[in-house]
Amino acid sequence: xxxxxxxxxxxxxLDPAKVSEVRGLMLGPLQTVQAVFTCKGPSRPAYGQSQxxxxxxRQDGEIVGGSTFELRLRRARxxxxxxxVRVILEKVRITDDHDPxxxxxxxxxxxxxxxxxxxxxxxHTVRLPPRGTIKIGDRxxxxxxxxxxxxxxxxxxxxxxxxxxxxPTEHDWxxxxxxxxxxxxxxxxxxxxxxxxxxxxxxxxxxxERLSDWMLWYRVESLPLG
Length: 226
Prior knowledge:
This protein has strands at about 5, 30, 50-60, 60-70, 80-95, 105-115, 125-130, 135, 145-155, 160-170, 180, 185, 195-200, 215-225. The chain is mainly β. It has 2 domains: about 5-70, no CATH class; about 80-225, Immunoglobulin-like. The strands form 4 sheets. Strands 6, 7, 8, 10, 11 and 12 form a 6-stranded antiparallel β-sheet that branches. β3 (about 50-60) and β4 form a beta hairpin. It starts with a strand and ends with a strand.
């Protein structure tokens, strides 16, 4: 009859950047060690990148056993010849409306387009709002606007590559309109690898959603084919 080693009641915090070891375990005949591993992989690994960790057992300096485990992500589905994707523009934040303070909040519109493979006939453009403008200032605490608008919903092929472009304009009555920085991002790889939320705080200081005078948040969803 086998017994379990008391190591099961211990908790170890292993360093993900180097090889970690647990030493000095004394096992008797037929005694076993049970372990539970909890781990977190990168939120956006490159398509095709493997996420694995290996456990090796040594005895007197010699490898006597081991296993390799692969992490499976839940955020994206398996690859399909055709995918149904939806792009939702969630919100925007203005950090510089290019107007003096006495003019108050700016009056904005956004030209959003989603294109595929740089083909003009596969470019979908939406104006936000459909008519008029949105009043947004650039003072912290009063410079965000929630949109929650779908800018694309359709079927795409596994070989398609998606480009998202958003161009904000601050409209002036007596002076020339101010055009803020244009946002542009290309998504390579199969469509299921595009899935996720994209915002100004998830890729470091050079995050593409953090422009010099505004920021944006949006998400790409994978929908059922049926």
